[in-house]
Amino acid sequence: GTTTNADGTFSVPVPNPNAVLVVSFIGYTNQEVPVNNQTTLNITLQPDAKALEEVVVTGYQTEKKADLTGAVAVVNLTQVKDIPAGNPMRTLQGRVPGLYVEATGQPNGGNSRVLIRGLNTLGDPNPLYVIDGVPTKDAQVFASINPSSIASVQVLKDASAASIYGARASNGVIIVTTKDG
Q1: Nearest partner of 88 among 143, 154, 149, judged by Cα
Q2: End-to-end CA distance of the chain
Q3: Mean pLDDT of 90-98
Q4: Alpha carbon separation from 93 to 22, 39, 77, 85, 87 (Å, rounded)
Q5: Most buried of 8, 71, 76, 159 (most Cβ within 10 A)?
Q6: Comparing C-alpha atoms, which of 57, 54, 59 is closest to residue 172?
Q7: pLDDT digit string, tens, across residues 72-87
Q8: For strand 173-178 and strand 128-131, is the pairing parallel, antiparallel, or unpaired?
Q9: pTM higher than 0.85
Q10: Three-state secondary structure along 7-66?
């Protein structure tokens, strides 16, 4: 395997002259290019239009992924389902860029503070939690949910969340959907 430089050129040793190179890049369709004893190949990747048509649910609306300009992190719950933690917020630590969970060190596993994008306000730094459509600023409501009953978690990290939830969303929004709804 290899990667291209800034000009898009690359070099890779191919021991078999009849080999097939697989060229891939995020957002583009994979291409299989036969070498056929050639020493120079010109390859142009095609955009993967299917990925742009995906729908992302943000708050109370849906948007095409291609039109989404905000910072939204969708947590893959299959990666965290086997983590033994009584607090679902602890399972998100390290899985969402820009999400910081500060633990109190108490045996009950409570959180002292959850920050999205760091400490960015002098007042209340807590994000807005929307659990099955019900908004709250109390982190303990989310911390008390059984992790196995959570269907999805989305983290809205930018100021566009305020267009959906108002000023309460100035520190980010954590949207939780439970399996029971």
Answers
A1: 143
A2: 46
A3: 73
A4: 35, 47, 13, 11, 11
A5: 71
A6: 59
A7: 677 766 665 666 666 6
A8: parallel
A9: no
A10: CCCCCCCCCCCCCEEEECCCCECCEEEECCCCCCCCCCCCECHHHHCCEEEECCEEEEHH
